[in-house]
Amino acid sequence: MANIQLYVASCVLLLSLSWRTSEALPVPAPSPGTGGQCADFYKMLLLNISKALDSIYLSDGIQSEKIEMRNTGETVLACAPTLTQNLGCVTQRNSSFSESECLKNIKKDLLYYHAAIASYLTGPLKNGPEEIRLLSPIVEITKNLTENCFPQLDVENLPSKDAKVWGNESYNNRLEMNKMMKGFHIRAITINRAIGYISSGDHRK
Most buried residue among 5, 102, 155, 156 by CB atoms closer than 10 A? Predict the structure, then answer.
């Protein structure tokens, strides 16, 4: 598990280095759904996930360092910039970058996490008011993003087998939520980098 976590972190770092140049460029005409208020929503999403992970209310009594990543979808691969140099990461490819494919996978991720967190809040909660206070903004942000920031972009319904299922014990649910939010944090970093890359217009050059 430690090797997998290190591998995922390495891939995110490589993508960060690949996108750093594009983030520094001016953004004269961002693609629909990636600029303005939508760009702010993506930043707010990452900030709120970080805030939730830093809170004691989701980690109370939990010592696990495990990370749960959403298995369905290929966001990291679909949103990786076109590279010609092999950096030893599975996300590096030589095929052309597809903006629509990247955004489609981002939307799938957001729909998944929105449904999972909203469902969690309807179950048994040890620190009810505080957990609701921490997670409700994330539910609202993911809703705003999926409804307002993907113009004319439809995705097929997520298979029911991909839906997150919560149990009846608050501790086990918090343990699963803690692992899921760590994975969502990594995915949110990837999403923000991808949106910055798309906004830069580098893939259209």
Answer: 102
- 101-152, pLDDT tens digit by residue? 899 999 999 999 999 999 999 999 998 999 999 999 999 999 999 999 987 7
41 and 143 Cβ atoms separated by less than 8 Å: no
Angle (CA) 42-72-138 rounded to 5° is: 30
Q: How far apart are CA 30 and CA 201, in angstroms?
A: 7
**Which residue shows structure tokens 């949106």?**
195
The count of domains in the chain is 1
- Whether the pLDDT of residue 176 is over 70: the answer is yes
Distance (Å, rounded) from C-alpha 123 to C-alpha 9? Answer: 31
Rounded Cα–Cα distance for residues 46 and 18 (Å):
20
57 within 8 A of 178, measured Cβ to Cβ: no
Instruction: Look up the domain containing 103 and give its range.
Output: 2-204
CATH number at residue 18: 1.20.1250.10
HSE (side-chain half, CA atoms, 13 Å) at 149: 25
Q: 3-state DSSP helix/strand/coil percent for the chain, to nearest 5?
A: 65, 0, 35
- Cβ atoms of residues 140 and 186 within 8 Å: no
